[in-house]
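Researcher: Sequence recovery benchmark, item below. Answer with residues only.
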């Protein structure tokens, strides 16, 4: 899956004079959502249902990251996606415990939660984030300061946290569809996964004739080149190995896999 990172901010929303008169204390959004954050969340899902792109699940880690950034916006302003000394969007959401292959963010300042949602829906970039079919989770934070509401919505496509054995089982299930036998010993494939090139020497038995290494944020399909090799009918067995993802993915979560074909 291609890693995606999109951000959009709203510099100001009209009718700030109608904002809350009393400045509320900043409060963390978690568990039972603060009313304005809950409203933004509900309105987003209503819009997504109407658009036919599926509901978003609440992600506490994204909400924590959104809250921390929302405080920075309320304290430092003008609104921005990054302030001096602050990690970027991918890093700060990952530091909060989020795991993702797509990350997007909307920020705004406005008088009410309804107004913020409507302005996001009227802005092409914000609307694209909110209605993106590529995301399935969200965390929202809303903070009141200086007579206005500051809002942050962090959207992501979540990545499951699987053990190496679970990763290998997922890939093996995809391979079995093509009719190949899955070898029980993953050691050679794990060695191949941890290296960048070459086919491991077999201590006993036949040597693999093809190796495919890849890194991705999900395990719902095999790489096209691997599928083509399987479709050729020239291979009867496969070994699957998983290893830690390489750092090139940055803050994005990913799995690294190697498949040997025999």
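Model:
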């Amino acid at each position: 899956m291609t890693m995606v990172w999109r951000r959009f901010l709203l510099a100001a929303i009209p009718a700030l004079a109608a904002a809350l008169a009393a400045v509320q204390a900043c409060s963390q959004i978690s568990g039972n959502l603060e009313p304005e954050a809950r409203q933004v969340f509900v309105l987003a899902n209503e819009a997504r249902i109407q658009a036919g792109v599926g509901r978003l699940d609440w992600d506490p880690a994204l909400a924590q990251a959104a809250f921390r950034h929302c405080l920075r916006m309320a304290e430092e302003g003008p609104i921005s996606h990054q302030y001096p000394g602050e990690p970027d969007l991918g890093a700060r959401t990952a530091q909060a415990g989020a795991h993702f292959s797509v990350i997007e963010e909307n920020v705004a300042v406005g008088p009410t939660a309804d107004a913020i949602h409507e302005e996001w829906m009227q802005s092409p970039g914000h609307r694209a984030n909110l209605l993106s079919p590529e995301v399935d989770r969200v965390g929202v934070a809303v903070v009141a300061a200086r007579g206005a509401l500051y809002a942050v919505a962090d959207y992501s496509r979540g990545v499951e946290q699987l053990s190496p054995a679970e990763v290998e089982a997922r890939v093996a299930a995809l391979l079995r569809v093509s009719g190949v036998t899955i070898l029980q010993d993953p050691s050679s494939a794990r060695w191949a996964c941890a290296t960048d090139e070459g086919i491991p020497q077999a201590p006993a038995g036949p040597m693999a004739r093809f190796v495919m290494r890849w890194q991705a944020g999900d395990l719902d399909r095999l790489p096209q080149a691997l599928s083509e090799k399987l479709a050729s009918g020239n291979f009867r067995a496969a070994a699957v190995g998983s290893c830690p993802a390489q750092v090139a993915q940055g803050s994005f979560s990913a799995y690294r896999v190697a498949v040997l074909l025999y």
